[in-house]
Design a protein that fits this description.
Length: 621
């Protein structure tokens, strides 16, 4: 029996939940400090960061912070090595102002919520640079991976396509890898891996034509982004498969590298880091209770915190998204042999908290991270996303080919898991480029399936959205005569996705509204309405009525997932900012009726009807 409509919807929801668990919402790292960096004869530091670019083993020099008025300039070098350094650190702490935060649209000082010192960028400068140390490259790749668009119905993709052949292939590759695995390495590292130098002979063992040097270099870079020189066996297997595909393509058309084709379809997104504050959280009570960072502009994606090498204890940074938590622990004492700069980045709509500092001073630089046009130079190969391989795409395709799924058509609203900054009064111009983590994966899947969709601001409390959303979706569906595959695509905001976030409603939406907000307009008869409203039945009334009707016509998936955070969004930020707010957003998708789907894809229709016939035959007595 083909799956029912409920089964299909359930499968979308399951795929999203697991995608959400896997999606990165925070990342972090550590950069060792070389206390005595190399100098030229004239005394300059060179190379400044001693970056071994190919090994990606970036180390850095001690960090300087300069502050003070004209004629009273001070400088602190960290890690501190002398009593003067300790005195300078105390002076820096003294020079900070008590840190405020945003509550209900105002900057407040409340040391029961945030106890820290702060210094603004106009009062200090630092020799630390997150670009120089490679942090921005890593954060970009992890939080804004490049995205690839591929044609719809890519043969060979999806669970149905040659599943057994693929499994057999994987088994064969795994066996060949197992023969190469170095047992000593397994014992040391605790997982099976092979070394880069073994790749050519591994390919030869499998009878796959050798890659030329450039291609092999590309593959190594793509599958070993941190240039560790070794590949866990599952990663090696993916690498081999990629070369296998390229070899097959070369053979089929007598041309070179399929990789080059893929290269052209990759869409890069970039990040720009803007230094925001220097903060000091000091023992015994420095802390910052749970909050989300106030978006500074529509293009703010995340926040970066860099922890300078001063000794302290406690002060872990806990970052949360939905029901997951990652804790960045940076406590360090001055006796550590290799001091380091530790850092963490996270999407700024994720709730986070600085736990109590129990000893010393925790000194941090905070940066706001904004979306910027990608350069294409950040090789960007490790985490690229091939839309047609997203689990959701095959679920959508299966559902669309199933006559029992939405026979008359339907609208599905997926509640996005992240929130997005949104300025009044401009539209949400940066959608869909701003989408984060699993939300981007969902959007990509809808896009790759060729469905018409719209990104809409929704009121999380009552799931109301713009009154014209369905009309607009129908209109763009008709003009685009979809669903159909698309040969190429990019994430340009100008493509068919509507993004209609226009009006800002920051206040809890019902405050001060007339009574009709409370009445379920959908159940009242028109006489009752006349009686109740008479002359107050104005434009707003009709708009509300329409919005409620739309709510009933849309099937929700995943609504309320971030509800627990909404109070924090409205109440607490790291700064009051009246022009910006986070919005809850839904991706509303139009599922065309079965007839339209048949028109768009006769083959799928025929196949599915055949299956249905067979199923019916099976049930005949
Ligand atoms: O210092 C940290 O780890 C985070 C600080 C923070 O959340 C903020 O300044 O908004
Ligand atoms: Fe924060």
């Amino acid at each position: 029996m083909p799956p029912t409509q409920e089964d299909c919807l359930e499968s979308f929801s399951t795929a999203l939940e697991s995608g959400s668990r896997e999606a990165t919402f925070t990342c972090g790292g550590s950069i060792p400090i070389v206390i005595e960096p190399k100098r030229t004869q004239s005394g300059d530091l060179t190379p400044r960061t001693d970056a071994k670019v190919h090994g990606q083993k970036i180390v850095t020099k001690p960090v300087t912070v300069r502050w003070g008025l004209d004629g009273q300039g001070r400088v602190l070098s960290l890690p501190g090595r002398s009593t003067q350094d300790s005195a300078a650190l105390q002076d820096l702490v003294q020079a900070c102002q008590p840190a405020t935060f945003g509550r209900g649209g105002e900057n407040v000082l409340d040391e029961t919520y945030r106890r820290a010192g702060a210094m603004s960028t106009d009062a200090f400068s630092t020799g630390f640079c997150p670009y120089e140390t490679g942090i921005i490259d890593v954060v970009t790749q992890l939080l804004l991976p490049p995205v690839i668009d591929e044609a719809w119905h890519n043969p060979g993709d999806g669970p149905e396509a040659g599943g057994e052949v693929v499994d057999e292939q994987t088994r064969r590759i795994d066996e060949a890898i197992a023969m190469k695995v170095d047992t000593d390495f397994v014992l040391r590292q605790g997982y099976r891996a092979i070394h880069t130098s073994q790749l050519p002979s591994l390919l030869a063992d499998l009878g796959i034509s050798a890659a030329d040097e450039d291609e092999l270099g590309d593959l190594v870079e793509k599958f070993d982004p941190l240039r560790t020189g070794s590949f866990a066996s599952n990663v090696a297997c993916e690498l081999v498969k990629e070369r296998m595909d390229a070899a097959a393509a070369e053979q089929a058309c007598g041309q070179t590298l399929q990789l080059e084709v893929t290269e052209r379809k990759r869409t890069f997104r970039g990040l720009r880091a803007e230094l925001y504050k220097l903060n000091v959280y000091s023992s015994p009570s420095g802390m910052f209770k749970p909050h989300v960072d106030t978006p500074r502009s529509e293009s703010q994606v995340g926040s970066l915190v860099v922890c300078l090498p001063a000794p302290f204890a406690g002060g872990a940074l806990a970052v949360r998204h939905q029901d997951q938590e990652v804790v960045h622990r940076w406590e360090a004492d001055s006796s550590e042999r290799q001091p380091a700069i530790q850092w963490a980045a996270f999407y700024s709509d994720c709730e986070h908290e600085v736990l109590q500092v129990t000893a010393g001073h925790r000194i941090t630089l905070t940066y706001n991270l904004f979306l910027s046009p990608g350069t294409g130079l950040l090789a960007g190969k490790p985490l690229n996303l091939i839309s047609s391989r997203l689990p959701l795409v095959s679920r959508f395709q299966q559902a669309l080919a199933n006559p029992a799924f939405a026979p008359q058509g339907m609208y599905i609203a997926f509640a996005l898991t992240h929130s997005y900054p949104h300025a009044h009064p401009s539209a949400f111009a940066l959608m869909p480029k701003m989408l984060k983590g699993v939300d981007m994966a969902l959007y990509e899947a809808v896009y790759a399936t060729g469905l018409t969709c719209s990104l809409e601001e929704v009121n999380e409390m009552d799931l109301l959205m713009r009154a014209d959303v369905l009309k607009d979706l129908d209109r763009s569906f008709d003009t685009a005569s979809r669903p159909q595959g698309r040969e190429t695509g990019n994430l340009d905001a100008s493509h068919e996705v509507n993004s209609s976030l226009t009006k800002m409603e920051v206040l809890s939406d019902r405050e001060g509204e007339p009574d009709e907000w409370e009445i379920d307009l959908g159940t009242s008869s028109s006489e009752e309405e006349d009686e109740c409203y008479g002359s107050v039945r104005d434009e707003r009334y009709w708009d509300l009525k329409e919005r409620k009707q739309i709510r009933r016509r849309v099937t929700w998936i995943g609504s309320g997932r971030s509800k627990d955070l909404s109070s924090i969004f409205l109440a607490l930020g790291n700064e009051a900012e009246l022009k910006m707010k986070y919005s809850s957003v839904a991706l509303v998708v139009k599922i065309p009726g079965w007839d339209r789907r048949c028109l768009a894809d006769r083959t799928a229709c025929r196949e599915a009807t055949d299956t249905e016939e067979t199923a019916r035959d099976d049930h005949m007595p």
